[in-house]
Amino acid sequence: MSEKLSPLLARLMGIFLLGLIRVLTGAQARWQGCPPKAEQRIYFANHQSHADLILMWAALPEELRSITRPIAARDYWTKTPFKKWITTAVFNAIYVDRVKTSDQDPLEPLVEALTNGDSIILFPEGTRGNQDEPQNFKSGLYNLAQKFPDVVLVPAWINNVQRVMPKGEVVPVPILCSVTFGTPISLGSEEDRNHFLVRARQAVMVLRES
Length: 210
Fold this sequence. Notes:
Layout: H1 6-25, E1 28-31, E2 41-45, H2 52-59, H3 62-65, E3 68-73, H4 74-77, H5 81-90, E4 94-96, H6 108-115, E5 119-122, H7 140-147, E6 152-159, H8 161-164, E7 178-181, H9 193-205
Parallel strand pairs: 1-7, 2-5, 2-6, 3-4, 3-5
Antiparallel strand pairs: 6-7
């Protein structure tokens, strides 16, 4: 694959994936609390499937996809050359390590992306859950909100995506899915971490009923 051809293939693959995702899921985006706007944002959502990354990416309009980078678990999304190529060339994902080591700050690649002006898609639970309600949020969202107070924090609820690719299954099942984007929140000037993370989780959960 030549370097000149690679960007073209990535664009064609992106178009193909958008079409496939919309056939399988509908990929409905519901902007209830804010409009789709080309400003720097952190979209934070519930996490129940590896397909969450893809559905969130597909739900954004094209002008936002080009400036928004999803977070991808390095161990899963670099398992094969094809997965790594898609997440790198098509999604422009930020790889994070799910296993923390003593000499590594897991937020470093996210901080770098935000410093460069990118928007990001974050799953504050850290790992996939199997319940209707998201697990407690980890501190990453709070730390990023502290470091980047001018970045808009947009909660989102991903509905039904876990049924598209049930655990252990290889072939996706067509199911109508949606992503609901809520009203942005911000970190209070003297708000502590636990209070903020509970409030952020509630901002996501309230969108289930929307």
